[in-house]
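Board notes, transcribed. Complex of a protein with magnesium ion.
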Amino acid sequence: MRTLAVIGSTGSIGRSALDVARNLKERFKVEALACGHFSPQFCEQIKEFAPRIAAVNDTAGALELQKAFPDLDVRSGPEGVASLGDSADVVVLSVVGLAGLDAALRAVKAGKRLAIATKEVLVSGGELVFREAKKTGAEIIPVDSEHSAIFQCLAAGGRESVARLLITASGGPFRGKDKTFLENVTVKEALAHPVWKMGPKISVDSATMMNKGLEVIEASRLFSVPAEKIDVVIHPQSIVHSLVEFCDGAQLAQLSVPDMRLAIQYALTYPVRLPSPVAKLDLSEIGKLEFGKPDMENFPCLKLAYEALKKGGICPAVLNGANETAVARFLKGECRFMDIPRFVEKKLNETVNIIDPDLEDILEADRFGRE
Ligand code: MG
């Protein structure tokens, strides 16, 4: 029996992770749960999984939780949430944004398996997290569907024989739209993703294609492959989750119906595969899969992410910080959809780069990006 912590348990990935844990009760014991705010849903999770520890980011919420569960070890605030990083054998990290960096560092420093869904942590602090993981031998296993696909394909050939990573992208809700359309996009339109049901931040990122840009950086960090060897392929059906091209020209892909539980379960049970409740793929039923090139002109966020990755140093952290701020403002109706790439580009242009940044440099770059 292995213990499991889910940091961000009420979000869409966190709920799926608990569903996986529910199906694998005889293998995983939920030891710790964390969320942003106290909610009836979180209470239900505590009742069902009976963790030893729970954390709520919002301090007032933590007090309420303690009242509801007097015997539970309740922790509060960002520090309380981060303290769950080394609380279990396997740590699922699925909070939004760079807030997850502390927990990720704790997990790898303690040599735990980090099943990571929070791409911002790898984008901004990836080098640092991997440096620490190397010291302890901690495993970092991707939960993002594309990176899980690449991780699975890499099992078929040595890392030294990899020629290229091909990351698929659904293209989001505005695939094929032009500049005039994009200038007038509303929040509601941006939140309506055609394939995946996700939180608001990542839905907007999918609409601007910044999500794919962050995933390119994330892939570069996870698999030590430079920007020049990572391509994005538009694939609206989201059946092929990504591919690896090897030096002999063979391309391997991982296919399944779009259901995050598959990637989460694999991150938990790797290298073992177990039966799952995920619906089986029937290609003859689907009939047709389409592929195309990404539109970097109308979706400049993707281009900006490539630029930040090539420059390296603190640029990815600035890109991420600026994007988090711009998306939050767009969601509040304080700026327009195309102001998101404009703001990110402005911040990148103003950045004085630092190569080989430490934690302080990264946090400072993140603050600068958000200003
Ligand atoms: Mg993804």
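The first helix runs from residue 12 to 23. The chain has 17 helices and eleven strands.
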